[in-house]
Design brief:
Blueprint lengths: L2 H22 L16 H26 L6 E6 L5 E3 L12 H6 L2 H7 L23 H11 L46 H5 L5 H10 L25 H4 L9 E3 L11 E3 L21 H10 L7 H7 L6 H12 L23 H11 L18 E2 L10 E3 L2 E3 L5 E2 L21 H11 L6 H12 L2
Antiparallel strand pairs: 1-2, 3-4, 5-8, 6-7
Amino acid sequence: MTFSRKIFWLVGMAGVITGLLLAQNGKIPSSYSPVVIQEPFASVMKRMSAAKAGVMQRQAAHLQARYDLGDRPSPSAKMTRGKPVQIGVRVKLRSNATWDKLAQMTPEQIHAQDVFPLGFLPLPHANHPEGGMIFPKFVIEEIKKQEGRDLTRFDLDFDLPDHVLPEFPPAIFLTTRPDLGDVSKGKLVTIDNFYELFNGTLNPKQIEGVRLLVTPFAQQQFNQTEDRRTERPHRGAACFDCHVNGHTNGASHLAGDARSQEFRHRIETPSLRGVNIQQLFGSQRAMKSVEDFTEFEQRAAYFDGDPVIATKKGVNLLDRGSQVHFMAEFQAMLDFPPAPKLAVDGTLRPKRASAAELRGQALFVGKAKCATCHPAPYYTDNTMHNLRVERFFKPQLVNGMMASSDGPIKTFPLRGIKDSPPYLHDGRLLTLDDTVEFFNLILELGLKPEEKADLVAFMLAL
């Protein structure tokens, strides 16, 4: 090799080594997860387990700065199976602001004075730089009791308190058999009891669909490789671990459709109730069928949208013509809970509704503009809307997450909404009172305190 070639070779190798070092230090952005893990699993678990308390303390401090997390149940409003609905505005105001003062300001003034409530900013994951599926403790305990499968992560725990989450286990109502009422019989549907619960009620295709929905498959954090977040090699997560009983338990994850990590959005598990009347699926992905959504979850969402790492961890590629079809057929049977105050057109029956509920309905379709996006009977327009919340605040790093724009968000149905806290796609709004304050500010509605209370009363009747 000539001297000049040696120089070029040395320069080239130096560039390669420099590139590798930069990549390892996170200075070169990449869309891909690391496939070859260089640190022994025992070392990873020891390091992340030791850091867990600090991680959760930081998130707890952030949540305390955003919200009043007290347990303040309604004396009268209950979810379908009896859990009290949490009431009151929980988002904390900044400095000397009041809700009335904020409502009188323009978005530009709120932005310039930096008084946008912290609780209205996008909500970060319990550990945003790490991300991944994370389940409430009551879910972990019941699945472990029934199946012996442990969804505990050694690196972090769920962050929101149980009293602001949906009731557990939730009821199941079927569009095909409304005469049966709650077919869950008060139980959490799992691989252990699905056949007992549904044999004689569903047809064989639908029973197979339920079986697949409660079958655990490998997932990014719950798998059998060294790149997992459980102490033991893991069978994986099931669709109904998050969409428990075809509803939701408030479990959170990070959306897989953005990079870098800090720009990914926290997603709160949406309910599958009323899938049959919906035309868009996924909080922000606008997939056009429940079959697309079901297949997407297995192929992409389970592995943070990374097909490379999915192959290593054991992706389960469902057959579209049979397995996906069976799963989707059952999901399309999941009905909203009964709402005895509503007529067949979805509006209130005057003889059954209270004066506050009727006033709230008038506001809903009038001054509050809610029905623009949430029309009766199911209270969704089946499209996407960009609220442009970023008008009100400067882009900022919030506990490891870059709070910037949300982008288009699916209009979720409001039927049975009292059963589905917390609210918005990332769960940043803990109560219906919070949602009213949020939209009053974002849409510049100028609602009075008594009007806000009436709107909440109406939504509790849906």
